[in-house]
Amino acid sequence: MNLEEKEVIDKLIKNAEQTAGRYTHPIFTVGHNSKPDLIGTSVIIELDNKIYLLTAAHVLTSAASMNIIAIGLEGKITPISTEWFFAEQLDGVEFDVAFTELSAELAAEVEALPSSNLLHTEPNQGEHFCLVNGYPSSKNKPSKALRQPSKYASKSYSFVSYLNYDFDQWDDVNKDPEWHYCSAHGRKQGNQAPLKPNGLSGGGLWVIPNIAEPKLYLAGVYIEHYTHKKVSFSTRIDKVIETIILKRPNRVAGGI
User: Fold this and answer.
1) What angle do CA 205, 82, 138 make, to 5 degrees?
2) Distance, CA of 126 to CA of 163 (rounded, Å)
């Protein structure tokens, strides 16, 4: 890669990070002492004229005893009062996604990713790059990010990679290529710092399928990192959409 190509790619990545960040928010719990705790990341999407907040199911189940689940929105910690739906497993395969339809009041305050930017088909191999965007706890120390009970100063980060189509140990990790994307995340990617997953769960896996026509798509919801295998997994967004449509007409138990 020559210098001119590198500059083009760097600009492409920077623009992709900025775009992904518009739809990405940290998730907090607020306990009895009113002190917030950063527990993960979420993505806001539009689907059939409704606004949904997506995250990983394990982010919320690990905080089930907390009084309040909230997101960071324009520097303020904003409670989520709508009902959550969980899909931790489907057809015996780990799925690990939770979602809620935002109230009209809160939906009016956020920016939602248009449904046209949800990736429904796999990108061509070798013609794309991807990134995981979210709020890793390693970059958001509570002493700095949460100086006041109702405010935060967290910052999102991205880890650039590519979809790993050569991974062949799906049974070992209880995943399925029909339900998940595998992305290559080793100890270090070029000059990029190694991925530290705590806090990233529930964030987006974003893909530019064609660098020549750089449109950013949400490909999945990030759920897990395997350090020793140097890969990460995200639940595919097309399967998330199917689950939202399936669960949407019926009210089910399990919300926080």
Assistant:
1) 40
2) 9
Say if 149 falls within a structural domain: yes
Q: On the CB side of 251, how many CA atoms lie within 13 Å of its CA?
A: 2
If pLDDT is split at 50, 70 and 90, which confidence band does 2 have?
Answer: low
119: left (phi over 0), alpha (psi -120 to 50) or beta: beta
Does residue 128 lie within any of the structural domains?
Answer: yes
Compute the Cα dihedral for 125, 127, 133, 138 and give only its sign. Answer: positive
The answer as to whether 119 is a domain residue is yes
Measured from the Cβ of residue 231, the count of other Cβ atoms closer than 10 Å reads: 21
What is the pTM (predicted TM-score) of this model? Answer: 0.87
Q: On the CB side of 103, how many CA atoms lie within 13 Å of its CA?
A: 8
Residue 255 lies in a domain: no
Could you read off the pLDDT of 25-68 as tens digits, one per residue? 999 887 666 678 888 999 999 999 999 999 999 999 877 666 68
- Per residue in 126-135, pLDDT (tens digit) is 667 889 999 9
* Spatial CA neighbour of 28 closest among 97, 79, 98: 79
Range of the domain at 124: 3-247
CATH number (domain holding residue 204): 2.40.10.120
